[in-house]
Amino acid sequence: MPTNAVALLILSFFIQLLALPLTLAETNTFSEGTKYLYPEILKDEAVTRLVDLGKVSDSHGFLERTFQSPASVSAGNLIREWMEDAGLRTWVDQMGNVHGRIEGMNPSEKALLIGSHLDTVIDAGMYDGALGIIAAISALKVLNITGRLGRLRRPVEVIAFSDEEGVRFQSTFLGSAAIAGVLPISTLHAQDKSGVTVQGALKINSIDATEENLLQLKYDPKSVWGYIEVHIEQGPVLETAGFPLGVVKGIAGQTRLRVTVKGSQGHAGTVPMKLRQDPMAAAAELIVLLESLCKQPEEYLSYDGQCTASTVQTLAGSLVCTVGEISTWPSASNVIPGQVTFTVDIRAMDDLGREAIIYEMSNRMYQICDRRSVFCHIDRKHDANAVICDQGLSSDLKSAGYAALKRLTGENPDDVPVLMSGAGHDAMAMSHLTKVAMLFVRCRGGISHSPAEHVSDDDIWAASVAVLAFLETLV
């Protein structure tokens, strides 16, 4: 055989070997055949990118990236580079979302959307949101280098949403809600603490967000096949179960309130205790009421045509309430404040039960304020109904998680856990557009929204392999 022919035969063999799907690795142990699991991309590079993204912050000493802040824009640019490295066409839309898309073999087919958020809370961990983006990009990069990216049967689009946490404008899901078509036009005029509007923040970064192009951001439901999201669990269930991955069956509904209590401002040393109209003391009683009501809802709710025993039972298992922010005016040690404002976050799987809690809490709060001769106002800032994930899509994602664990260990794992999410996610907004499914990833101690937030390198690898396994079903 001629030398050139032999060389071509050998080259052809190695090209085919590189393009082998991950299923070949299922018969191998964790220590054997790991090259088919692409650890240099799905693990090492993914971890490095998460660390790099975690360094992009608006503050020194802790991680903070809020909507359209300088760090948020820098993070978006970095993500866009990684998307292009994976072979995706990229762009930034009028709400600051970063997109990366491959059309596949059939550009007219409905698209699979994969996403999570690039913004963070204040003093955040580096995995919340970012993990879902990086895992998706890493999986698509593997398809690209193995020559399978263009063989996808439908378009696949990764979206790094500009805002999920709602820190800057107290309105969550700015990015995903715009794409889903459920973001109110009035949100453009919402202001942050410095008086900058959403529209103004975008304009600072050369994004012209008008009411007209905000409406145009909405995706046509007929063009979307489904949405999946990988996210850290933010709770201890998977760690307790000893499993790196779990499938989400539903997301708790959420309401955010801002409570304002106004009293009579005065000198701390000259106003007698019996004559005070102290909003701080009133606010303290309101907060204790909230805690008691949410710990033991059955002792506060009455059974009627709307609030049944089953509703109360569901609440007892899923209801959580939090006061996360409190401020006073004026804030001075020798002054009785004239006004106290605090936020309330209420979450539950039962939407009717959540409304019953809000109704009961509001009535009792107004009664306390009347008794204390102070004025109370309760403003609803955000509402999101509970979301049930699509059974078919969740089943496919569960199978992908199972396959990933089998490939990594070489053994048949126990059934992948199915659990609820108490935290809100972009999937909640996207459920208004298409069917959704979520994959949770174990985090140490269940800690999140904290610099102590941590996901092991191997669990990051497992998540990326699961996304790749899911995408392989589309090849």
Automatic annotation (TrEMBL):
<feature type="signal peptide">
    <location>
        <begin position="1"/>
        <end position="25"/>
    </location>
</feature>
<dbReference type="InterPro" id="IPR002933">
    <property type="entry name" value="Peptidase_M20"/>
</dbReference>
<dbReference type="GO" id="GO:0005783">
    <property type="term" value="C:endoplasmic reticulum"/>
</dbReference>
<comment type="subunit">
    <text>Homodimer.</text>
</comment>
<protein>
    <recommendedName>
        <fullName>allantoate deiminase</fullName>
        <ecNumber>3.5.3.9</ecNumber>
    </recommendedName>
</protein>
<dbReference type="Pfam" id="PF07687">
    <property type="entry name" value="M20_dimer"/>
</dbReference>
<dbReference type="GO" id="GO:0047652">
    <property type="term" value="F:allantoate deiminase activity"/>
</dbReference>
<keyword id="KW-0378">Hydrolase</keyword>
<comment type="similarity">
    <text>Belongs to the peptidase M20A family.</text>
</comment>
<feature type="domain" description="Peptidase M20 dimerisation">
    <location>
        <begin position="253"/>
        <end position="364"/>
    </location>
</feature>
<dbReference type="Pfam" id="PF01546">
    <property type="entry name" value="Peptidase_M20"/>
</dbReference>
<dbReference type="InterPro" id="IPR011650">
    <property type="entry name" value="Peptidase_M20_dimer"/>
</dbReference>
<dbReference type="InterPro" id="IPR010158">
    <property type="entry name" value="Amidase_Cbmase"/>
</dbReference>
<keyword id="KW-0659">Purine metabolism</keyword>
<dbReference type="InterPro" id="IPR001261">
    <property type="entry name" value="ArgE/DapE_CS"/>
</dbReference>
<keyword id="KW-0479">Metal-binding</keyword>
<keyword id="KW-0732">Signal</keyword>
<dbReference type="GO" id="GO:0006144">
    <property type="term" value="P:purine nucleobase metabolic process"/>
</dbReference>
<keyword id="KW-0464">Manganese</keyword>
<dbReference type="GO" id="GO:0046872">
    <property type="term" value="F:metal ion binding"/>
</dbReference>
<dbReference type="InterPro" id="IPR036264">
    <property type="entry name" value="Bact_exopeptidase_dim_dom"/>
</dbReference>
<keyword id="KW-0256">Endoplasmic reticulum</keyword>
